[in-house]
Amino acid sequence: MQEFAHQVLAGLATGGIYGCVALALVMIYQATQHINFAQGEMAMFSTFLAWMLINAGMPYWGAFVLTVVLSFAIGAVVEFAVIRPLHNAPMLSIVVVFIGLMVIFHSLAGWIFGYTIKPFPSPFPSNAWYGSSLMSAHEVGTIFVALVMVALLFAFFKLTPLGLAMRAAAQNPGSSRLVGIRVGRMLMLGWGLAAAIGAVAGMMVAPVVFLDPTMMTGVLIYAFAGALIGGIDNPIGAVIGGLLVGVLENLMGAYVVGSELKLVVALIVIVAVLIVRPSGLLGRRIVTRV
């Protein structure tokens, strides 16, 4: 029973990371109606920036904050320089651009930082008082960081004028322009926030999987599965879906398929959701009158 509880709680910790990446995917999907396939590689590149700052002597939390700021800037620049000119481009062109961004960030990370696996420090000491036999201090800290980030984003989108403007611009750009909202600026801000969220997720997962250019590949697939389960257009649903995928991954890996085939679980989940309920558990069903 204790082993089962450990698997569930550890799954919630990794699920928190999946939920963060899923949240970033949902934010960009709401703004562009497209999935950003480069989200994981952007998060990986940001984590390398944090590693570089820490190795240069900067304290962890100072490097954490600066990395989030730099990641926000990178996301905003990508939207302004790459995505905005494709506003009226065919869907296939946009998909190719997303794949191109994924390859570019992956190659840049390998070229600048190398392809060797590097250790990444955890901000949570292994002997901290909140660690236990069921959950390590890093797992507890990861859940806490994920919950704080979700709470801050929820308050931002629900309680601030800027957050409400971003929601309006993502849901109805035409009407938003009529009431004076700068839709382009709101979309750029959304890309920046998504990149910053991805950076936080990358810095939380790097101490577990170690740092290398391929570290976010599996995480992105799990996050995509979580976003589909919760609803690709529902931020809260994406976080819940990420937590469910994290728990399911751990339980299936421990008791059913083994650790080598855990990634298959995420792929099966993606296919099953697309077949049975494409809108997800909390996503909106679009009904068209004929």
Describe the protein's architecture and organization:
There is one protein chain. This protein has 290 residues and is an all-alpha fold. The chain has helices at 2-32, 39-55, 60-83, 91-113, 137-159, 161-171, 173-178, 183-209, 217-230, 235-255, 262-276. The protein has a domain at 23-215. The radius of gyration is 19 Å and the shape is globular. The N and C termini lie far apart (54 Å).
Structural key phrases:
mainly alpha; 290 residues
List the helices and strands and how they pair.
Layout: H1 2-32, H2 39-55, H3 60-83, H4 91-113, H5 137-159, H6 161-171, H7 173-178, H8 183-209, H9 217-230, H10 235-255, H11 262-276
Helix pairs in contact: 1-5, 1-8, 1-9, 1-10, 2-3, 2-4, 2-8, 3-8, 5-6, 5-8, 6-8, 9-10, 9-11, 10-11
N- and C-termini, Cα separation: 54 Å
Strand fraction band? Answer: under 5%
- The rounded Rg comes to 19 Å
Strand tally: 0
Can you give the helix content as a percent range?
A: over 70%
* Structural class by helix and strand composition: mainly alpha
Low-confidence stretches: none
Give, in order, the helices and strands: HHHHHHHHHHH
Q: Count helical runs.
A: 11
Largest sheet: none
Silhouette: globular
Mean pLDDT: 82
